[in-house]
Amino acid sequence: MRYGTSTKLGSIAKHAVLALGAVFILAPFVQMISTSLKSSQDIAQGGLNLIPREWAAVENYSQALNATPLLQYMLNGVIVTVCIFAMQVLIALPCAYALAKLRWRGRSTVFALVLMCLLIPPHAVAIPVYILLFKMGILDTYASLILPFIISVFGIFLMRQFFMTVPDDLIDAARMDGMSEFAIVWRVMAPTAVPALVAFGIFSVIAHWNDYFWPLIVLSSEELYTPPLGIATFRTAEVGYVFGPLMAAATMVIAPLVIAFLFAQRRFIEGITLTGMK
Amino acid sequence: MAAVGIHAIQKSFGSTDVLKSIDLAIEDGEFMTLVGPSGCGKSTLLRIIAGLEAQDAGSISIGGKAVDDRRPSARNLAMVFQSYALYPHLTVGQNIAVPLRMRNLSMTERLPLVGRLSPKAAGKKVEIDRQVRRVAEQLDIAHLLDRKPKQLSGGQRQRVAVGRAMVRDPNVFLMDEPLSNLDAKLRVHMRTEIADLHRSLGTTFIYVTHDQAEAMTMSSRIAVMMEGDLIQVAPPAEVYDDPADIRVAEFIGSPKINILSGIVTNQGTVGCNGVEIGIQPDCPAGAEVKLGVRPEKLEIAGPAPGRLTAEIRHLENLGPDMLVHLRMRDEADPIVARCPAENLRTARVGDQVGLVFSPGDVLVFDGTTGLRQPSRFAVPAPEKIHA
Ligand SMILES: Nc1ncnc2c1ncn2[C@@H]1O[C@H](COP(=O)(O)OP(=O)(O)O)[C@@H](O)[C@H]1O
Ligand SMILES: [Mg+2]
């Protein structure tokens, strides 16, 4: 059975490569969780022990929760990311529908502009946007964290690509049944696009939950801090770097993302492969 | 129920004229089939009737009233699409209910919670459920109401699509090639079902197909479309026996009609492959004509002087009948004759045979325009002359 052994070898090699990659990606996370459980002496000793020699899990996690209002930061994070995503969907779906399924003069030009906007790095427009928010007088508010991101060209692009695969007949059937164009977007297109929406949601939530740059620029009140800024406050404490509580805070901050991803994983993969509809 | 009037409808996409001034009056309760080759503009015309596409010029009336400025749903038509176009996220029951929910419930009443709070909305929803169930039972899909479209076979999806169209009791049914995604056997079966449905509902049907067999078997009248023009509108038998144009003759009928070329002789008859055919078209001597003879009107006989001869290339046994594929010298296209099988016991591929037909069965078309030419028989009332 030469054929059998060679495919077996091939599959072992494949898995070995994947496992190596996984170790490479996961190592920092494991290190983070391990460090969050260790006492500061243990951490200071260095070494690669994953199991703490001296446990300080309770101390680290309670210090992370007490020294800074971490739960408040996480609540801020939830408010901001949920609002951003909701508004992005509210705007991107009708836009994507118009770009994919309606015929109007200038459609291809507008779509080209959307593609061009994909190329603009967010940092390039940070200062104009900052000035705009300043003139509007809403710096250092939730609005300043949310408004700049409610139009997601990536979302428009992704949803447009997905809507292209929805058959025209389905839309015509909806029109015959008496749906308005907006009803078609929300009652026909959105439900068929759930996998793409989940994928977009994960991209969007991760990006804005983890965003450090923008909140740092627009916020000055600590009670509006989002999780990444909150974690950073550990660094500025007089004691210098307190790794244990810092890693405990970091673990708590990414936990919701990991859990959410695990729940949405199947849909997410359907969404990026864009084959969920066939 | 309503009559549909199509008045001077024109449509072009960019520089291509897809519909060149179409006029058609469809009577109340009629089963009208638009038939023609792919790309001739049938779907475009149907979509204009439905209001899904705007015409460039002309007007559509339904029940005598112009509907050009009405949205598709306000025209109260129902459409069955080739791909069925069922909502993939809704169950069969919900799919069928959509047109009623959209028409009978207000925006707030459609919200799930309001239905429970408002007795009026709840009453309407019960009524919708009742109608959905009635239609489902009529179509024999009541046991599928809770399934999603993905879990249905092609034939079942087809029925759901018909159910969604029926439930709102439309003025007119529009169907765009509704059978072409089904396998051959089911397609033949569904023809009968749709014809039955038309009989029992008595509603006007406008049915689009590129399949001439569907058109012939189901319709009250057939409208043959070619390249954006209607070239003949008539009952199936008339379209078959009395085509107005050579393109109609060639499109309708399977196997295809045989076309021979001929020239009008000085006596006014037609010479074809050196044989004189006893028919006198209204054409000047020397004019080129095309002669059309249906395969079942051709008989195979022994070769004889003054008789068209051809060589048998292939024999196709259909059971009771035999299709004889023939090649005639000087004719580019093969000739097909459909004869009772028992007449051909001795026929072999390669045989030279004579072709026999009655001049009364010959359709004469103008050689350049393709229009049908009226013609008389050269010999008064012949029983059967062997040309
Ligand atoms: N939206 C459109 N844009 C451009 N051309 C179209 C459009 N719809 C149809 N056409 C063209 O119009 C012609 C007729 O199409 P259609 O009505 O779908 O034909 P049929 O249904 O008879 O096959 C075709 O040549 C097709 O390419
Ligand atoms: Mg078509």
From TrEMBL, chain A:
InterPro entries: MetI-like, MetI-like_sf. The keyword Membrane applies. GO terms for biological process: transmembrane transport. The keyword Isomerase does not apply. It holds the Pfam family BPD_transp_1. It is found in: Cell membrane. Keywords: Cell membrane, Membrane, Transmembrane, Transmembrane helix, Transport. PROSITE patterns: ABC_TM1 (PS50928). GO terms for cellular component: plasma membrane. Residues 74-264 form the ABC transmembrane type-1 domain. It is a multi-pass membrane protein. It comes from the Bacteria. The chain crosses the membrane at residues 12-30, 73-99, 111-133, 145-163, 184-209, 242-264. Belongs to the binding-protein-dependent transport system permease family. This is Carbohydrate ABC transporter permease. The lineage of its organism: Bacteria, Pseudomonadati, Pseudomonadota, Alphaproteobacteria, Rhodospirillales.
UniProtKB/TrEMBL annotation, chain B:
It comes from the Bacteria. One of its GO terms (biological process) is carbohydrate transport. Keywords: ATP-binding, Nucleotide-binding, Transport. Residues 4-252 form the ABC transporter domain. One of its GO terms (molecular function) is ATP binding. One of its GO terms (cellular component) is ATP-binding cassette (ABC) transporter complex, substrate-binding subunit-containing. Belongs to the ABC transporter superfamily. This is ABC transporter ATP-binding protein. It comes from Hwanghaeella grinnelliae.
